[in-house]
Design goal:
Layout lengths: L2 H8 L3 H17 L4 E5 L2 E6 L2 E8 L4 E5 L11 E2 L6 E5 L7 H13 L19
Helix pairs in contact: 1-2
Length: about 130
């Protein structure tokens, strides 16, 4: 794991740290070829320079965010923002269902929108896969 991501996780309280560590472990296992780094102050994984998945500490939870998640056809994911992102929020590590995250990560690899070039395209997203 990227040292900066582990440092991010270590800064969380014990409950959130456990959530973050479990999420990172699942993501790393499913996306071993993805670049991972702190991006806009949060851990994010990229494929070919395109953000795929990340997590962030919110006031009352840890949010797992999939940039193309609105097109995954997954009832458990909630729409986030005005583009294609979707999220799931965790308040305890016991809520983490590895099979769900594995499935979402597989879809994240297969279904991608081009966030890398969103500024160049003046806010218009194009589907890559």
């Amino acid at each position: 794991m990227n040292i900066a991501i582990q440092e991010y996780n270590n800064l969380q309280n014990s409950t959130d740290k456990e959530i973050c560590n479990q999420l990172a472990e699942i993501i790393l296992k499913n996306l071993p070829d993805a670049e991972n780094k702190i991006w806009h102050a949060h851990p994010v994984w990229f494929l070919d320079g395109n953000p795929i998945v990340g997590y962030s500490k919110l006031k009352d939870s840890v949010r797992l965010l999939f940039w193309s998640g609105q097109t995954f056809d997954e009832e458990l994911l909630s729409n986030e923002g005005s583009f294609k992102a979707a999220e799931f929020r965790y308040t305890s590590a016991g809520q983490i269902i590895t099979e769900d995250i594995n499935r979402w990560l597989q879809k994240a690899r297969e279904i991608q929108w081009d966030y890398k070039n969103i500024v160049k395209r003046k806010g218009i997203l194009e589907r890559l896969k």
